[in-house]
Amino acid sequence: MRSGDVPMLWKEAIVKPLYKKGGRTDPCNYRPISLTSSVSKTMERLIRRNIVSYLNKHSLLHDSQFGFRNNRSTESQLLEYNRKLLGHCISNKSSLAVYIDFREAFDKVSIPKLIAKLKYYGIRGNVLKWLENFLTGRTQKIRINNAISEPMVVTSGVPQGSVLGPLLFIMFINDIGNNLESDFLLYADDLKLFGTNPDSIAKDLDTISSWCDNCCPEQV
C-alpha cells in the first residue's frame, strides 16, 4: 500500500460468458462473469471500508443514490419514490417520470475522469496512488469451456468482478444530478427523473445528456 504498487496478477480477470437466452451465436445473449484475484479482494475490502467510512463521515455521496450502499435497497428507493408522488397527489399536480437506462455503464467509465473525481472527493496519498495503479494496465482473458483467449488490455470501465468496482462507479456517477431541477433517484446506474413541470424535465434531460457527453460519450 505504501508504495502504491499492485501486482499484475491482481489486475487480471478471467471472463466466462454465461448464456441468458436467444440465439447462442449472438454475443449479446451472454452475460460476462469476471473472475478476479481472491487476494486482491482482501486488500480491496480494507480499502473499501476506509473509503466508505470517509464518504459517510463527510456526507459526500448524494442522498438520491440507493445502490451499493448499506441499509439501502430497491425497496427503500421505491418507498421514497412513492412518498414524493403522494406529495404531488396531495397538491393536485400530475406527475411526470422518465426512466433512464445507461448502456454498458460500468464498462464505459473513463478511467482518467474517475481518477480526477476521486481526487475531487478528497481521496489522496497512498490510497489514491494504489487505486490509480489498480485501475490502469488491467487485462482480461475470455474462457469458453477449456479454451482461453490471449490477454486483452482493458482501457475503460470499473473492474468487473472486483470488490471496489461498485463503489468506484457510484462515486463516478455521484455528480450527475448536481444541476437538475427535478427530483431524481438512482440505483447504481438506473436513473429515475420525475416531477410536475414538463419544461424542467425536458431541461434536465438535456443536462443529463451533456453530463454523459462529457463523462462517457455514447453512454445512453
From TrEMBL:
Positions of the Reverse transcriptase domain = 1-220
Which InterPro entries does the protein's record reference?
A: DNA/RNA_pol_sf, RT_dom
Q: Which domain of life is it from?
A: Eukaryota
Q: Which Pfam families match?
A: RVT_1
Quote the protein name from its UniProt record: Reverse transcriptase domain-containing protein
Q: Which organism is it from?
A: Caenorhabditis japonica
